[in-house]
Amino acid sequence: MRAISKKIIYTLLFSGCIISGYSIWLSLRPVAIFSVHKKNNYSDILVKTFPLTEKGRINWWMENKSKLKLKYDIPTPSEDGSFTVIFWSFGEGYKETDGYDRLCFEDMKTKINCIDKDSMMMVKYNKNTGLYFRMDSGIYYLKDNGEMVKRKY
Length: 153
Prior knowledge:
Blueprint: H1 2-28, E1 32-39, E2 42-48, H2 54-72, E3 83-89, E4 95-96, E5 102-104, E6 112-116, E7 119-126, E8 130-134, E9 139-142, E10 148-151
């Protein structure tokens, strides 16, 4: 009976190590930016391996916004300073339009210029609301003092 208990404990311990290792690996993967599409003060960024959590996505933006500005000139604010940046899952890559619900990019002169709409995060700024992050579970507003306030839909 005692040998069975040890086997169960070792199996659970091993499983826990595998799950922990996989979770750490997922959180440390670099974000892969596949393409950027811009129109006026709107930018669409197609990504793979985006952080899994909403907090991780916001932190990634805060840590990488200057790199995005240098490399892609994103965000591109309008005259009043407002901008919108949407991160989309690149998923299975570009596809032809389905005529309904795919997001198609006019700056690509090919039939295969659409993606399935799977928004990961929207970053938006305007002078009335300030900077905020639109996620599946709600909107996170960044206050002037650096505090983050979440409002559910």
